Amino acid sequence: MLKQIEGSRAVAEAVAMCRPEVICAYPISPQTHIVEALGSMVKSGELAPCEFINVESEFAAMSVAIGASATGARAYTATASQGLLFMSEAVYNASGLGLPIVMTVANRAVGAPINIWNDHSDAMSQRDSGWMQLFAENNQEALDLHIQAFRLAEELSLPVMVCMDGFILTHAYEQVDLPTPQQVDAYLPAFQPRQVLDPREPVSIGAMVGPEAFMEVRYLAHARHMQALERIPQLAAEFKRVFGRDTGGLVHTHRAEDAETMVVAMGSVLGTIKDTVDEMRDDGHRIGVLGITSFRPFPTDLVRAALHKARRVVVLEKSLAVGIGGILSTDVRMAMSHLPVPVHTVVAGLGGRAITRKSLHRLFREAEQDVLEPLGFLDLEWDLVNKQLARERNARRSGPAAENILRDIGTVASKIA
Amino acid sequence: MFELRIHGRGGQGVVTAAEMFSVAAFAEGRNAQAFPSFGSERTGAPVVSFCRISDRELRLREPVMEPDAIIIQDITLLHQVDVFAGLKKDGYVLLNTARSFEELGLGDLIAGRPPERLCTLSATEIALKHIGRPIPNAPLIAGFAALSGLIRLESVIKAISEKFSGKVADGNIAAATEAYNLIKTRIEEVSTHA
Prior knowledge:
The complex is a heterodimer.
Chain A: E1 2-6, H1 7-17, E2 22-25, H2 32-44, E3 51-54, H3 58-70, E4 75-79, H4 81-86, H5 88-97, E5 102-107, H6 121-125, E6 132-135, H7 139-156, E7 160-165, E8 173-177, H8 181-187, H9 214-243, E9 251-254, E10 261-265, H10 269-282, E11 287-292, E12 294-296, H11 300-307, E13 312-317, H12 328-335, E14 343-347, H13 357-368, E15 375-377, H14 382-394, H15 401-409
Parallel strand pairs in A: 2-3, 2-4, 4-5, 5-7, 6-7, 10-11, 10-13, 13-14, 14-15
Antiparallel strand pairs in A: 1-8, 6-12, 9-11
Helix pairs in contact in A: 1-2, 1-7, 3-5, 7-9, 10-13, 11-12, 14-15
Chain B: E1 2-9, H1 14-27, E2 31-37, E3 46-54, E4 69-72, E5 92-96, H2 107-110, E6 118-121, H3 123-130, H4 137-148, H5 153-163, H6 166-193
Parallel strand pairs in B: 1-4, 4-5, 5-6
Antiparallel strand pairs in B: 1-3, 2-3
Helix pairs in contact in B: 1-4, 1-5, 3-4, 3-6, 4-5, 4-6, 5-6
């Protein structure tokens, strides 16, 4: 049924239809609306049987999810930003133990400086944790990916992060097609754990593993990710049969036919990019888009196949690997090994900086003229950066950089974007 | 595509206003998107929300920088925020005030703009009368529905009923209805005089 609702609400409805048995969460913006909605569904009895556990921190949230999943319960949690970092040790444990937890990450910047707005730094920090990471382009996809995520996680006995842009998606009201519980039941079978803490058949989970077997256990995690590369498209196809929507999968292309310039991105910015690309196509520009849904596992072959005919590739990413530049673009470059196609990294939208059509039009035209550097920063205010650099050259005790720059800018309340 | 920007302060229902307007547009079979520009959310701090309405799928995620319409829930923002930034030449403006544009020193803003698209409404008073709290969002979006002719009153009422229930819904619906009719009448007067 079509509904005009908030993204967080849509995700909560989808998660509830997946019948989680344990939900544990610690509030942090911009994820909070999701677990608030789920909490009220549990309290009202609408979502039953399900235990909603208020925990004292994100570390506890993931630890409870691990315990719940190990006893054979379908477990869900959600977090963002510093919350994800705070649970990081347990995040690695969940995947290392092979427990199929599903977690929403409402993508938000990581401090310092403290910032509540959207970028992908939080999810990127956990890219090697062993979790699968799926990125939603819009709220319909966010909703759909959660249903697919439980199926994928439980089949492979590996946890999945569904990443959706904080505020931009979580707090956006837009139209979503809510499935029926019957559809979800038809798609998502009951959880059949590979391992379960059961007093009738005791096992121990979480043994210490020395040099004799550690590499093998780690390799198995990688092998499961490689299996996921096959299963994710199959599960998306099956999803389409049941729900009639083509969401999920590994990658999606847009206007990629005969494109000389290909733009690669993840998440909600793909919408703005597609609008820009459509306008440029109308003006005769040969430009297309590759949206990556599955960042982990990374669909190396499909990325290469989608990009190898282009003359240039622009990777627009909402994260910065300080000291080298891109994160997503490093993986794209790996996929493009030995191809004579330049890959440009453009870091954009950090800490909620708006990514506008106007800036994208300028950027993509610069790309077409082959004037982009290997690493660029969209709409970076160089004057502010240079002023602070000068301050640091001129005085040893130049003071805190963030506060200096805020003072240079003056009030920010008067700006729209 | 029609783009609306709403300015107000934390606690005035600025975000809810955009959400309800999107729900009203959806009720009429349009594609709609509403989203906030969250600052550090504090009561009284400037807040901006956005609403886009289109007959096509909405994919755009940038803030509304060249609005077709602006609603200002709190006119004290006129001195603090560049609330009219990017407003289209033939754009709509709805201010929550009992004063006129001229009295507010906005003579320059309205010069050359179509007068039937510029309007003021004492939405806070209407809200106090019907809801008992100074939350002017429902009368403002209903007033804007009348001003723009974009959305029917019944759709606004439907949106309010989805968001609120009981007495709060009743009060908001009464406030919205009064605001809608007030502006409808005023527009008819303007067009009769013109």
